[in-house]
Specification:
Elements lengths: L31 H35 L9 H13 L12
Length: 100
């Protein structure tokens, strides 16, 4: 999650070609220009996806609460585990032999 506020359209940085010399080891290279480009692009992408992530979180919460009975005591995980164990006891093979 980004620590800074949303970037306005006027503050956006246009992508540009950055030349990185590959003569020396990685430790000696200067990546400051690359970092200056990545940070605003990340901020822009994060705020573009934020409404979708929030919507997905709400949908997941609603989906998980559908399995829970409001009057019952317990955890919806218990229902899920029970159904998983029960399903594992059955096989998917057809037990009838046809002759013809």
């Amino acid at each position: 999650m980004p620590k800074t506020k949303k970037i306005d359209q006027a503050e956006q940085v246009e992508p540009k070609e950055i030349e990185v010399k590959e003569n020396g080891p990685v430790e000696n290279r200067d990546f400051s220009e690359l970092i200056k480009q990545i940070e605003p692009e990340y901020q822009l992408d994060w705020w573009f996806m934020k409404p979708k992530i929030d919507e997905w979180a709400v949908r997941l919460k609603v989906y998980n609460n559908q399995k829970r009975d409001k009057e019952a005591i317990g955890d919806p995980l218990l229902f899920t585990i029970h159904q998983t164990v029960l399903a594992s006891l059955y096989n998917d093979r057809l037990n009838v032999n046809f002759e013809g």
